[in-house]
Design goal:
With about 350 residues, the chain is α/β, with parallel strands linked by helices. It is about 45% helix and about 15% strand. The protein has 15 helices and ten strands. The chain has helices at about 5-25, 50-55, 60, 75-85, 95-100, 145-155, 175-180, 195-200, 225-230, 235-250, 255-265, 270-280, 295-300, 320-325, 330-335; strands at about 35-40, 65-70, 90-95, 105-115, 120-125, 135-140, 165-170, 190, 205-210, 215-225. The strands form two sheets. A five-stranded mixed beta sheet has the order 2-1-3-10-4, sandwiched between helices. The two termini are about 35 Å apart. Mean pLDDT is about 90; it is low at about 20-30.
Length: about 350
């Protein structure tokens, strides 16, 4: 379970978020928003459908004005804060949404990206097995981010507690994390594709393939500000139609997906782009991307909040927009085969 230090920090972050929400409430939803920012928590291949939707003009096609994809690097809690404040009333993020919602923020998941954690822990070659990390130091990106949470959950599978058995340092992103491993400052680091390929090329060992553990936990999903959704339902529907089409395009047109990854991750190496695309492709298979209740329950199970035990996964999910789209002819027409979703 989380350390007391983590709980205090998370509580401060999300208590501040609630005050931001109160201050911003009057400004939200008074007029229909035509152009919005869409947030995302990290420059990762898991965000590919979001990148594709923007780059291929799918948001505009379905009637949604998007002025930018807004990155808050390595900070799931900051992405949740964007939702709360309405800065980006729709955003891609992980389990941080649950922490904010537990503390009263009016935010919910409306669609899934990946219902399982897809990361790997890389270490120096002399560390033979996961249990050998006891007494060692692991680099992660940011407090409360998906990488730290994935590290906590993965280590728990091997009887280790981050902050007790294994120390952590927060370095803000994959480049400094890998640099710290190279310099011997840390013994291991948790990475996502395509940085994992670079780690392999540098001779580091994949100690734990977190994706292979198939842990039910929200790696990344689409969250929405509930007030915005209530006042702008057509914008939410337009977003989801574009997103559904982008998932199909990502699956069927690898070149489009890899080009989008290259732009938003600043990676040019074709091998690395292919690795990132193929790593996350299994997450993009749903025609209608519902959020798994088991994955939200996984977030609750590892929550830092004492109130989490009394919560239900359904309280954090709003599938009403997806259900409306599924009940229409949109998906059948998109795929052109009349098969059920």
């Amino acid at each position: 379970m989380f350390t007391d230090r983590y709980k205090r920090s998370a509580g401060i972050i999300f208590f501040a978020m609630i005050w931001v929400a109160i201050a911003a409430e009057a400004a939200r939803g008074q007029a229909k928003q035509e152009d919005i920012a869409i947030g995302y928590a990290s420059p990762s291949g898991v965000m590919t459908p979001l990148y594709v939707a923007q780059e291929q003009g799918l948001f505009k096609k379905h009637g949604l004005g998007v002025k930018e994809l807004l990155l808050l690097r390595g900070t799931g809690p900051a992405a949740a804060q964007m939702l709360v404040a309405g800065t980006a009333p729709i955003a891609a993020l992980g389990g941080a949404l649950v922490e904010g919602a537990i503390r009263g923020a009016g935010i919910a998941y409306i669609a899934s990206t990946s219902n399982h954690l897809i990361f790997s822990i890389y270490s120096r070659s002399e560390i033979a097995r996961a249990e050998d990390l006891k007494g060692k130091t692991v680099a992660v990106d940011a407090k409360g981010g998906s990488i730290e949470l994935a590290t906590i959950i993965a280590l728990k599978q091997f009887g280790l507690t981050l902050g007790k058995d294994v120390s952590s340092v927060y370095l803000g992103g994959p480049v400094p994390q890998l640099g710290a491993l190279e310099k011997g400052i840390v013994d291991a680091t948790t990475l996502s594709a395509p940085t994992t390929l670079r780690a392999r090329k540098m001779g580091y060992k994949e100690l734990i393939n977190i994706g292979a553990l198939k842990l039910s936990y929200v790696h990344t999903a689409i969250g929405v500000n509930r007030a915005f959704a209530k006042n702008n339902p057509e914008s939410v529907e337009a977003f989801l139609k574009a997103y559904i089409e982008a998932m199909k395009m990502t699956r069927e047109q690898p070149d489009v997906g890899m080009k989008a990854i290259a732009k938003y991750t600043q990676i040019a190496d074709p091998e690395a782009l292919k690795a990132a695309y193929e790593t996350f492709l299994p997450a993009f298979q749903q025609r209608v991307p519902y959020v798994s209740r088991d994955s939200v329950q996984g977030v609750l199970n590892f929550s830092s909040s004492a109130e989490a035990n009394a919560q239900r996964a359904d309280d954090f999910i709003d599938h009403s927009f997806l259900k409306k789209i599924e009940a229409s002819s949109f998906v059948n027409k998109l795929y052109g085969d009349g098969k059920p979703q």
